[in-house]
Design a protein that fits this description.
Length: 753
């Protein structure tokens, strides 16, 4: 689906085309990205739209005095040769010289995809790549731009590789993964921003002339700004972008004085430098991009499908994930083996399949000030050793999972006392701490060996089925004491390359172990981590209300199969909000379900509710984990979540505040129902614990929501909506009052029959 004619290049996916051409000056210009064009168009169909003479700006040369680089849509750009917008490539070719031309040299089209490092999406059968070489022939610097397409997918994978053909050193200050220049339009940017416990809240803003930057300088992809962005134009078409990278990133959007939009995504150039000796090359991480004529919802669905099929580690693609019980919020650091076994037994009895021993099992780690780095069993807590404990968990018929934070060290640890130079720290200052810990320097070979040995030994010793890989701080004091760098500007990128090297070895040696990524919750929720870890803990905030926003933001870019979501205690440990156990389940069930509370202390009501929840989740597990997610915002107070797999959809009605007698006339819609199909709709029966009803409880005579099952034509569900009856009717209320309560929700199973 890649073709070339008269130096016009067409990169087509199932439904989209991306078209570029080489001008007579050698500039590689962007012509179109949108709905599929069946044949390779002639360049005259597009020119000279962006080549009008523009006042004081530089034109190319006397023969080409109608070509103004500042007004071209360029595929990659360097500074100070007529293009005054932000460049995607900046390198010092000696003596601070950065001005250079990137002009067309040649191209090749080949099957597969170059598997350069950082290794991202692997070459897959049927994948096809166009590589275009641009060069500055005077300096001898080449840039290879790659565009790969995949079968039945509307995602294009892009990257750039730089070759230093000069006779000396080349210092790269910036090398973006992707540049896309799009003609004038009215653009709305969607970004996913936040902080700890408030990850990936969606924000929308209209782009105005000038530069907008979304980025991370945290050393990780970060909880402040995810590398995922969308752009929607006036016609409602959407473009999506993401990076296959876990470190500092930058997404730059520039509206030029002539209205064109430039998008640049890649490694954040902030304090970055990479030195190439003569003849060496540097490969950028990959970027993915997609286009949908139908807006961000559809673009997001295209990303989901691509990630499930081509990013998730092969063994885990579409493989169901166990329901887990994690010890953290139930015990924190306060546990011994006996307490954990009681927890696990209780979880098993509820239907849980995997028990996860979180922080606190190793060294002298009885609180978060000490022990990180000492990955051997705390014998006071586990007198017979970790191996024996894991065996006991396995003997209960549960899988065994364990927490590690391999990239970190406490100063109060044996590891730090022996290897103080293994941390990222300045030679002349006391390093800043976060959560009492320092970051190990993964740019060093010896550190990487230590981490691989530590994790693989724990897996082998315990026959672990699951590893929760945590990482709880941002970087500071960026400086490596190792000898493998040519410049301190390389440290953070080498760190990520080092991380991927360790994870690549672990994935190869233990393909069946389920890794869950975590970084103080969701501070490293990105496609780079998903290459090695099929699921990620979305946030330390498990409050059901906040999780609606976190879930929706996360699911904009990442499929349900990646989203770790837990039912925790009420009141919530993060928000102190109280809520019904079934409402908490409803939100957590969209994704990979877990429980994280002391299940030995549950009321009988809650125990029986959880038993039913897990049985229900297992019945529809594939729909919750691998279905297509969408949402419908009815009002500020009410929305629906949907997940659909084959003939089955689950719809979740979510309400923020309970309202009384509003005459709201709530209706259930299935926006994607087929007009000519008939659907059976059943409501999941929910437990209404008497504690929620107070004095009313004695009059009610029931503690379950009412049964509800009805058959409806698709056209009604799609266009008119099905009126929703009473959720729960207590004496004293009129028949039609629906009491979902504050932060209440109700789940419907919709099957096409
Ligand atoms: C931060 C994680 O996000 C939590 O889930 C938990 O594992 C703690 N670390 C343990 O220290």
């Amino acid at each position: 689906m890649i073709a070339e004619k008269n130096l016009v290049f067409s990169v087509s996916t199932e439904n989209t085309s991306y078209v570029m051409a080489v001008l007579k000056t050698g500039h590689l210009v962007h012509l179109a990205y949108g709905r599929r064009i069946a044949s390779v168009p002639d360049i005259s169909c597009f020119l000279p739209v962006e080549m009008t003479p523009v006042g004081t700006l530089c034109y190319w040369d006397d023969e080409n005095d109608d070509i103004f680089p500042d007004n071209l849509l360029l595929e990659y750009s360097a500074p100070y040769r007529g293009d005054n917008r932000e460049a995607s490539f900046i390198a010092d070719a000696g003596n601070g010289r950065t001005a250079m031309d990137l002009l067309y040299k040649g191209y090749r089209i080949y099957k597969g995809k170059a598997s350069s490092f950082p290794a991202s999406i692997e070459s897959v059968d049927g994948c096809e790549t166009l590589e275009i070489e641009l060069e500055d022939s005077i300096l001898g610097i080449s840039v290879f731009l790659s565009y790969s397409v995949f079968p039945s997918s509307d995602v294009i994978v892009r990257s750039a590789a730089i070759r230093n053909g000069t006779s000396g050193k080349l210092s790269i200050k910036e090398a973006a993964s992707l540049q896309l220049d799009i003609p004038r339009d009215d653009w709305t940017l969607f970004s996913y921003d936040g902080a700890w416990a408030r990850e990936r809240y969606e924000h929308k803003r209209r782009l105005e002339p000038g530069i907008t930057i979304i980025d991370s300088k945290l050393g990780t992809s970060g909880n402040e700004h995810n590398p995922l962005i969308y752009l929607q134009n006036g016609k409602g078409e959407a473009y999506g972008f993401n990076l296959v990278y876990s470190g500092n990133h930058r997404e730059l959007l520039e509206i030029s004085p002539f209205g064109a939009l430039r998008v640049i995504t890649g490694i954040n150039p902030y304090c970055f430098e990479w030195i190439l000796e003569s003849g060496e090359s540097f490969a950028t991480p990959e970027a993915i991009m997609t286009y949908s004529p139908d807006g961000v919802d559809e673009a997001s669905a295209l990303f989901h499908s691509f990630i499930n099929r081509f990013v998730i580690p092969p063994f885990w693609r579409f493989r169901t994930r166990p329901v887990l019980l994690n010890s953290w919020e139930g015990c924190y650091f306060d546990f011994d083996e006996k307490r954990l076994l009681e927890l696990a037994e209780s979880g098993k009895e509820l239907g849980v399949e995997l028990f996860v021993l979180d922080d606190g099992w190793f060294g002298n780690r009885t609180d978060d000030t000490k022990g990180l780095g000492d990955w051997y069993c705390n014998r006071e807590r586990f007198p017979d050793g970790l191996e024996a404990f894991a065996e006991r968990i396995h003997a209960l018929g549960l899988q065994f999972g364990i927490w590690m934070e391999p990239e970190m060290v406490n100063m109060d640890s044996e590891l730090y006392r022996v290897h103080p130079d293994w941390v990222i720290s300045l030679p002349d200052r006391t390093p800043l701490k976060a959560r009492h810990q320092l970051t190990l320097d993964l740019s060093r070979n010896d550190v990487r060996d230590f981490i691989y040995q530590s994790v693989s030994s724990v897996i082998r010793l315990t026959h672990a089925d699951y590893i929760k890989w945590d990482m709880n701080r941002s970087v500071s004091d960026v400086f490596s004491h190792g000898s493998e760098l040519r410049s301190q500007g390389e440290v953070l990128h080498r760190y990520i390359i080092g991380l991927y090297e360790i994870l690549g070895k672990l994935r190869k040696d233990f393909p069946e172990v389920l890794f869950e990524g975590c970084a103080s919750g969701g501070s490293r929720y990105d496609l780079g981590m998903l290459l090695f870890m099929p699921q990620i803990w979305a946030s330390d905030n498990t409050d059901l209300h906040d999780r609606v926003t976190i879930g929706e933001g996360t699911l904009r870019g990442y499929p349900l199969s990646t989203l770790g979501a837990h039912v925790s205690a009420s009141p919530s440990h993060q928000s102190l909000r109280t809520s019904r156990i079934d409402s908490r389940f409803n939100i957590a069930s969209f994704g990979v379900l877990g429980y994280e509370l002391d299940v030995t202390k549950l009321s009988d009501d809650d125990r029986s509710a959880i038993r039913d929840q897990i049985a229900f989740y297992k019945k529809y597990r594939d729909v919750f984990q691998f279905g297509d997610f969408s949402s419908l915002h009815v009002s500020d107070n009410q929305r629906f979540w949907y997940t659909t797999l084959g003939d089955t959809s689950i719809a979740l009605e979510i309400q923020t505040f309970g309202e009384v007698h509003t005459g709201r006339n709530d209706r259930l819609f299935l926006p994607f129902a087929a007009d000519d199909k008939t659907y059976r709709i059943t409501a999941r029966r929910e437990h209404i614990p008497s504690s929620c009803l107070g004095d009313l409880a004695k009059d009610c005579g029931q503690s379950m929501s009412e049964d509800f099952s009805i058959t409806v034509p698709g056209a009604i569900l799609k266009y008119h909506g099905l009126p929703l009856g009473p959720q729960f009717t207590a004496k004293g209320f009129t028949e039609n009052t629906r009491i979902l309560g504050d932060y209440g929700s109700r789940m419907y199973i919709i099957e096409s029959i």
